[in-house]
Amino acid sequence: LFLVEKNIPTPTTFLSLQAVHQAIENNTLELPLIIKPRWGMGSISIYKAETIEELNVFYKKVKNEIQSTYLKYESALDIDKSVL
């Protein structure tokens, strides 16, 4: 919110795959998209989706990767909202 309040451009983020699909269907979001865990650092588990099929595959892949790393503790409350 700090960056938005200062009128600094920021990427739109989503907390669910369903919300991303809805935004694409409503033409408020376009591919390509970056898929990554909400927590973590560096370039671990970051993917670029060029198609809807890639979006779905990368979302599942990141979710599985989260569950097999220390990020599972950060994401324990709601794994479905652990991928951006």
Automatic annotation (TrEMBL):
<dbReference type="GO" id="GO:0005524">
    <property type="term" value="F:ATP binding"/>
</dbReference>
<protein>
    <recommendedName>
        <fullName>ATP-grasp domain-containing protein</fullName>
    </recommendedName>
</protein>
<dbReference type="GO" id="GO:0003824">
    <property type="term" value="F:catalytic activity"/>
</dbReference>
<dbReference type="InterPro" id="IPR013815">
    <property type="entry name" value="ATP_grasp_subdomain_1"/>
</dbReference>
